[in-house]
Design a protein that fits this description.
150 residues; mainly alpha; 0% strand
Length: 150
């Protein structure tokens, strides 16, 4: 499951990078972080239902596309840029793990709510949501503080 999600993200990254190179558009890093703020709660609340089977891969592909668009404009010439890039990569990894767990949790919801809540992976699903949402908020604060400085 993780390998297929990784292939989906690579496809989204490549299409996003190609789109930016072809259309010459600018996608801000803050837009990617705010898109993750919208996608994470939606995937969390639909991850325990049957809608998560379709929504989790679609949101992963959309986030990968946006990250691929924004990766073109990453300023890697300064320490701030490298720090921003590292923070966004960790956020990207957490979103990847979270969406895979959302997909697996939505598949487990077929067996019923009682067995879903009794699974240890449901706890991992909730913790990954919490960590990724908190890191997303930290990335937004980090990007906003650097834009205020420069």
């Amino acid at each position: 499951m993780y390998l297929s999600a990784l292939l989906l993200t690579v496809f989204g990254l490549l299409v996003g990078s190609y789109f930016v190179a072809l259309r010459q558009v600018q996608v801000e890093l803050l837009f990617v972080v705010r898109a993750a703020q919208i996608l994470l709660p939606v995937v969390f609340f639909t991850g325990a239902t049957l809608f998560g089977v379709a929504l989790a891969p679609a949101s992963l592909l959309g986030f990968s596309f946006l990250f691929g668009c924004a990766a073109e404009q990453l300023p890697l010439s300064s320490a701030q840029g490298i720090l921003c890039f590292g923070l966004l990569l960790v956020l990207y990894l957490l979103v990847l793990l979270f969406t895979v767990e959302a997909f697996l949790t939505s598949r487990r919801s077929f067996s019923g709510w009682k067995t879903l809540f009794a699974c240890k992976s449901f706890l991992a699903f909730c913790l990954l949501f919490l960590f990724s949402y908190l890191l997303d908020r930290a990335a937004e604060f980090f990007l906003l503080s650097f834009s205020m400085i420069s």
